[in-house]
């Protein structure tokens, strides 16, 4: 990720008089061109990084410059470490852990105890329960594609099960709701699209071609929001038994529940009707009953019957 790479480069340059661009590129597994873009960004932030030409040349911070430790308070440093810990839990890159250690090292011994307390108050952990082993190679490839502006190709299966071959210009990786997505410009659709990494197969990079980064749409909207705006969205009424109230609160939030006279709890929500909705309702099992609309009630009943037949008729021997 770019932020921690920039911070790592700054700290490394503060501790060493000069570093070669090739060494930085190898250390952070990016291209030399990306390193020079990072150096431009650091310069733009007000830290004077200069390039020395010649056999013994390299990249270094202007002689005499020192980063004022007081420009960042302990609270601000703790916020950075907390963010890095959360990123580390989701990605697990060793560079993140090293950077956290470097930041901890600049805190005075007298403040170390309080600093550790502040960095351990919050942890945002979006890592999936089944681990990151299968996603890590995809993330690494796509990070390289984004850094070096390389086209990516893959086979994609959308939410309806339709399989297609895609060639895209990768722009940004997004972690949302425990799922990783790629925001990319699709050369076939001639527009930005959101691709779920778990639905990608045969991911590869076209290392012989590159693209110019495009400006991301000013008003980002998910596929879900687009469907809300372009289709008629019915209101769905669900009923939960009293003993399932805690599950209803977990799924929808306390504020969404309405107490009924028979002791049950009712939830009214507007959702686009599609395969995701059917799967979502079925995932709640016997804890929920669809009251409205009636046709949705029939769809869920039919699918539940198919599940029962599958298990009743196919006896494992």
Automatic annotation (TrEMBL):
<dbReference type="InterPro" id="IPR036390">
    <property type="entry name" value="WH_DNA-bd_sf"/>
</dbReference>
<dbReference type="InterPro" id="IPR057727">
    <property type="entry name" value="WCX_dom"/>
</dbReference>
<dbReference type="InterPro" id="IPR036388">
    <property type="entry name" value="WH-like_DNA-bd_sf"/>
</dbReference>
<dbReference type="InterPro" id="IPR051534">
    <property type="entry name" value="CBASS_pafABC_assoc_protein"/>
</dbReference>
<dbReference type="InterPro" id="IPR013196">
    <property type="entry name" value="HTH_11"/>
</dbReference>
<dbReference type="Pfam" id="PF13280">
    <property type="entry name" value="WYL"/>
</dbReference>
<keyword id="KW-0805">Transcription regulation</keyword>
<keyword id="KW-0804">Transcription</keyword>
<dbReference type="Pfam" id="PF08279">
    <property type="entry name" value="HTH_11"/>
</dbReference>
<dbReference type="GO" id="GO:0003700">
    <property type="term" value="F:DNA-binding transcription factor activity"/>
</dbReference>
<dbReference type="Pfam" id="PF25583">
    <property type="entry name" value="WCX"/>
</dbReference>
<dbReference type="InterPro" id="IPR001034">
    <property type="entry name" value="DeoR_HTH"/>
</dbReference>
<dbReference type="InterPro" id="IPR026881">
    <property type="entry name" value="WYL_dom"/>
</dbReference>
<keyword id="KW-0238">DNA-binding</keyword>
<dbReference type="GO" id="GO:0003677">
    <property type="term" value="F:DNA binding"/>
</dbReference>
<dbReference type="InterPro" id="IPR028349">
    <property type="entry name" value="PafC-like"/>
</dbReference>
<protein>
    <submittedName>
        <fullName>Putative DNA-binding transcriptional regulator YafY</fullName>
    </submittedName>
</protein>
<feature type="domain" description="HTH deoR-type">
    <location>
        <begin position="2"/>
        <end position="57"/>
    </location>
</feature>
């Amino acid at each position: 990720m770019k932020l921690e790479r920039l911070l790592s480069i700054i700290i490394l340059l503060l501790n060493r008089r000069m570093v070669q661009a090739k060494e930085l590129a190898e250390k952070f597994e990016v291209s030399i061109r990306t390193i020079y873009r990072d150096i431009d960004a650091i310069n733009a932030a007000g830290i004077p990084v200069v390039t020395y030409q010649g056999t013994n040349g390299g990249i270094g911070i202007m002689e005499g410059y020192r980063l004022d430790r007081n420009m960042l308070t302990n609270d601000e440093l703790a916020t950075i470490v907390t963010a890095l810990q959360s990123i580390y839990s989701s990605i697990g890159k060793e560079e993140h852990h090293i950077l956290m250690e470097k930041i901890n090292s600049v805190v005075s011994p007298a403040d170390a105890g309080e600093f550790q307390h502040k960095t351990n108050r919050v942890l945002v952990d979006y890592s999936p329960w089944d681990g990151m082993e299968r996603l890590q190679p995809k993330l690494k490839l796509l990070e390289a594609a984004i850094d070096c502006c390389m086209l990516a190709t893959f086979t994609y299966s959308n939410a309806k099960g339709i399989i297609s071959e895609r060639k895209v210009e990768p722009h940004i990786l997004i972690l949302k709701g425990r799922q990783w997505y790629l925001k990319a410009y699709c050369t076939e659709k001639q527009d930005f699209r959101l691709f779920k990494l778990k639905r990608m197969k045969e991911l590869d990079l076209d290392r012989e071609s590159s693209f110019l980064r495009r400006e991301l749409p000013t008003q980002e909207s998910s596929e879900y929001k687009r469907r809300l705006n372009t289709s008629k969205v019915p209101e769905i009424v669900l009923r939960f038994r009293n003993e399932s109230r805690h599950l209803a609160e977990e799924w929808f939030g306390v504020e969404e529940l309405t107490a009924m006279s028979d002791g049950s709890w009712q939830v009214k929500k507007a959702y686009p009707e599609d395969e995701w909705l059917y799967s979502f309702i079925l995932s709640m099992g016997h804890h929920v009953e669809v009251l409205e609309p009636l046709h949705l009630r029939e769809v869920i009943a039919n699918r539940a019957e198919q599940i029962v037949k599958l298990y009743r008729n196919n006896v494992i021997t």
